[in-house]
User: What shape does this take?
Amino acid sequence: MKYQWYPGHMAKARRMMEDSIRLVDVVIEIVDARCPASSRNPDIDRMAAGKGRILILNKSDLADPAVTALWSSHFQSAGISCLAADARRRISVRTLTQMTQKVCEDRNARRRAKGMNTDHVRAMIAGIPNVGKSTWINSLSGRASAKTGNKPGVTRGGQWIAVGSSFELLDTPGILWPGMEGEKTGRNLALTGSMRDEVINIEELALELITYLLKSYPGALAARYGIDESETIDAQRDDMILRPGTSADAIRCMEDICVCRAFVRKGGGVDYGRAARAILDDFRSGRLGRISLEKPPAKE
Ligand code: G4P
Assistant: This one.
């Protein structure tokens, strides 16, 4: 299950990012708080070298707060200014505005020492698809819609948006491509909706999510669907072909969810497709609770 991001997209996105970065003092990088490593592109460190940097752990309202706290201290101890936020809340906007000024304090002090009047900060937002870039631009600008599309090359003219009196934001977000390879990264990006559902097998993805939840968030499925999580089945059942990342118990849970929710096909038999869509929707909208998909590496 691999992220579908083509070399052509990547080259175009890189060019656009590099052009935009030249214009700004600060790059505000947005990642998904539920999987900050999977949704980050490490190339940005090189592209934004010498610029002020802020990392937003966005959608933190959907992530496990204890795990988000671990990520915040992980990034902060690496010297990265980090904000756990919900893009749709006013308080997030206020905090980000203050952080942006703070990140530029040294630069502004140097410029002032040279007699330049410069409390003015120019910033841009960057991130992979679906992490909340447009929502942040809308919140910061107070506008209703800044939907730009997720294809690199879709620009809105490179206008500046005034955020307060001394902060200007480029109205076109920088689109980054997912950085890391690997099954887990692909799974996490598919679960959080950074990969289009049409290119993935949603039943397999839902089974991977159930397997993960049974292990890492016991009780979450029982609370939502009223199923019994403690019941286990014989993993040797010969009608099951298990894919990596899924478990026999996940299939049993999926079947139970079908029964509890009456997801049955016309001619009889459980409707795995409907159950998969319901489970993924419930995860993405937070109805299964606040869930994180990865933790930072443990400190030595
Ligand atoms: P992008 O520009 O990076 O591609 O992301 P975009 O802002 O379009 O946001 C993608 C989806 O994530 C949107 O939902 C948006 O409302 C939601 N979102 C953004 N930030 C947050 C956040 O901090 N918390 C939560 N819970 N959701 C957030 P959508 O369903 O695709 O669109 P819509 O129906 O909300 O317009």
